[in-house]
Design a protein that fits this description.
single chain; 264 residues; 6 strands; 2 domains; elongated; Rossmann fold; 6-stranded mixed β-sheet
Length: 264
């Protein structure tokens, strides 16, 4: 009887210990889950400002652009205190990124859907194909110029938009170039009312296919006409380079003229 009583006591104590062990294991698991939730970053939805400038923020991850010395938060946020002396030499305002305006029409040869691949990579994609690959249109895009302009005094990054509604008065000084589609309604709401006055202040371009007639307004306004081939993609690189070189030349001339007027 004593042996049976001893065995029952051992069995009872083992069950109690086993239950305590299980409880402790589950308690540890709960503690680990709570700690993991506390360490996780906030999952709250991002605000519109963050989404709008997400592409610009991503450039910080690129080691090739870590020393550009320009406003790393875009045009509508605070300017960086880390300025580059190269921008001062080129006459650019500290942290001010130049703006390029493209047509917002889906029938245009160049718009927000295909402008980055053309200007930054030197590869042209027809608008309809670019829309099929990426149906969502961004409000603004940032393109790098360094592939085509090997000049440390030239701005390394440009902001591209297809609407001037969001521009403030001080932003107009940053508008460096415009791709014209042809009709005058493209310039509705611009700071300068006459197309001729616009082209005196902004470098104009007209991108069209090489097998179609040029828009008469593009000829009358004396903008730089770029003819793109529908079939021969090997010509795209040289065409994109001619865009950047012409823009760099016009911006340099305008900067020199502005400086001369100030000295006078």
């Amino acid at each position: 009887m004593k042996q049976i009583h001893f065995a029952l006591t051992i069995h009872s104590e083992f069950n109690v210990c086993n239950q305590d062990f299980k409880s402790r294991v589950f308690q540890l698991i709960d503690e680990l889950k709570r700690g993991d939730k506390q360490r996780r970053p906030s999952q709250r939805p991002r605000g519109p400002d963050y989404q709008r400038d997400k592409a610009w923020m991503e450039r910080r991850k690129d080691p090739n652009t870590s020393d550009l010395g320009i406003d790393e938060t875009g045009s509508n946020m605070k300017k960086s205190h880390h300025s580059s002396s190269r921008l001062h030499k080129s006459g650019q305002l500290q942290g001010a990124m130049p703006i390029l305006v493209v047509p917002n029409g889906r029938s245009a040869t160049l718009n927000m859907f295909n402008v980055k691949q053309f200007l930054q990579d030197g590869l042209y994609t027809e608008v309809q194909e670019a829309m099929r690959l990426k149906p969502h249109k961004e409000q603004k895009i940032f393109v790098k110029s360094a592939k085509f302009v090997n000049d440390p005094n030239f701005p390394p990054m440009f902001e591209v938009v297809d609407s001037i509604k969001g521009l403030r008065d001080k932003d107009w000084a940053r508008v460096a170039g415009v791709v014209v589609q042809g009709p005058e309604w493209q310039f509705k709401g611009w700071r300068w009312k006459d197309p001729a006055a616009i082209m005196n202040n902004v470098t104009g371009f007209h991108l069209c296919y090489d097998n179609v007639d040029k828009h008469p307004n593009a000829i009358a306004w004396q903008v730089q006409i770029l003819e793109v081939s529908r079939e021969n993609r090997h010509k795209d690189l040289a065409l994109a380079k001619s865009f950047w070189l012409h823009l760099a030349d016009r911006m340099g001339r305008k900067l020199a003229a502005d400086g001369k007027r100030k000295r006078e």
